[in-house]
Amino acid sequence: MSKRKAKPLFEETVRFTDRSRMEATDRCRRLRYWGHEYLRRGLVPKGLEIDIVRGQMGHSGLEKLLQGKGTKQAIEAARKVAVDYKVPKKTAEWLLELVTGMLWGLSIELPRFLRKYKILETEREERRELEPGLIFLARSDAILQNGGTDSKVLLSAKFIRAWDDRKADEHLVDTQGLSEAWAAEERLGGLIQKIQMLYVCCGKPKVLDVDIGVEEEVFVSPWWIGWQNAHGVWAHSQRWKSWDTGGWKALNSDWRPRRVAKHFEGGIETWVKKLYDKAIQVDAVNPLEAMIKIPEPIRRTAEEVEAWRVQAIARERSLPAPSDILLGAEELDKHFWQSRRSCIWPGKCPMYALCHGNSEYAAGELQLTPVGSGLFQWRVPNHPEE
Length: 386
Ligand code: SF4
Prior knowledge:
Blueprint: E1 15-17, H1 19-27, H2 29-37, E2 43-45, H3 50-66, H4 71-84, H5 89-114, E3 117-131, E4 134-146, E5 152-160, H6 165-170, H7 176-188, E6 194-201, E7 204-206, E8 218-220, E9 225-228, E10 234-235, E11 239-241, E12 248-250, E13 256-259, H8 260-263, H9 267-276, E14 292-293, E15 298-299, H10 302-317, H11 329-335, H12 352-356, H13 363-368, E16 376-378
Parallel strand pairs: 1-4, 5-6
Antiparallel strand pairs: 2-16, 3-4, 4-5, 6-14, 6-15, 7-8, 9-10, 9-13, 11-12
The protein binds iron/sulfur cluster.
């Protein structure tokens, strides 16, 4: 008896999906529409998406480090990302100093952590069919093999602003460890037993007088900013807990924030190494140890991964087929309903003006020509195949 071919989920065309589409859908279906489905391209707010650029720079550098290519090549890869994104010169300069600090830190931390692993592959694009017509795209940072065993571990890095208790709880239930594991498993044959998360923090954004030539928020962190007094003495933290007495201390107003790359002898490489050697601000702990977090690996069961797959298909099935046609208000309301609770929480939604208007445009006006308004631009695909 001939085997009947499964009916494609989407008759006319394939649908691509990935983790960011799924997360957008879970936050608000209208966000999924504006960000990924609108004319099959999706929109992003106009301007530099600095968190995305910083993350891409970090990932490109990390890939080189995992491949054993050395820190200088890693920094060059990060610089190339800033060029590709056409980051304005002054911003690109400080952003690269920040990422350079992170990469020197990773070049110290990674060899310790990777000692027990063999790196099988890095930054591999995965393309797997969830169902006929529905393709899941993913990219893991690395697949590792544990010691002399067959046990495989998926390494997933995130370049975040800061680590806190919420992040610590969040990482235990992060879907990245399920979706990327599922995508890699069939190709490798067998279950990926553990997910190893790696978090690199860049600091919180703030306008700080560090002579960057423009007034804009920078990610304030000891990767690239130190404090110096009139006697030329350096410190890495404005406020710190003494490891000796346990009490809190703070620098007085004689200290000024300074860019390490410009003013510290030996530049960022020497600075980061000295911090790891605890040679600066000797009564404080090395602040960089808190900027790279490598929690215990998470174990995933085959049942959890399978549950993710079933839910992923159900989520995509609940959406209309991909279309070049602009959806009218009625279809939008039927298929891409609004979760208004998410408009301003946990931060203002990037599509807020499209749904609610702004001081210049009513929402309806903006929806007619979001790109033409100058407030939005087309999304750059996350994966080459999209
Ligand atoms: S502004 Fe609100 S309703 Fe509109 S996409 Fe964002 S979260 Fe959804």
